[in-house]
Design goal:
Blueprint (H helix, E strand, L loop, with lengths): L1 H17 L2 E8 L3 E9 L6 E8 L2 E9 L9 E6 L4 E8 L15 H17 L1
């Protein structure tokens, strides 16, 4: 009886995790996700999001599924001293839980809007 219960619970666990999908893309300022896909989460693995910053400015994010070869390991303020980049990696295991990466810093918004306005004026000229 215990074996049947264990087998049933194992089957339910595998069935529940088989449908979990993660977002997979590189997200960059202004363009958003480049090469957007989704990946199915393997049992025992997690979705991950790595956000990369230069100082306090968000540079890009990498969203993907963890694998047995490269499982998700949460890290905060991991620094590459040569490039001056900081990395934060978070893990999650619910359907589409790694979808939104941080938005560009507010300093990029005026630059982008100014560039668009300049392009518009040039086109009207």
């Amino acid at each position: 009886m215990r074996a049947l219960l264990l087998l049933t619970l194992s089957a339910l666990f595998c069935w529940a995790t088989a449908d979990i999908r993660c977002h997979s893309c590189y997200k960059v300022p202004v363009l958003g996700c480049v090469d957007r896909q989704s990946c199915r989460l393997e049992p025992g693995q997690q979705c991950l999001t790595t956000n990369v910053y230069l100082g306090k400015m968000w540079v890009f994010s990498n969203l993907r599924c963890g694998t047995p070869e490269e499982p998700c390991r949460e890290e905060f303020n991991k620094t590459n001293h040569k490039l001056g980049l900081n990395y934060n990696t978070t893990c999650c295991n619910k359907d589409s839980c790694n979808s939104p990466a941080p938005r560009p810093t507010p300093a990029l918004a005026p630059l982008f809007l100014t560039s668009l306005a300049g392009l518009g004026l040039w086109l009207l000229h």
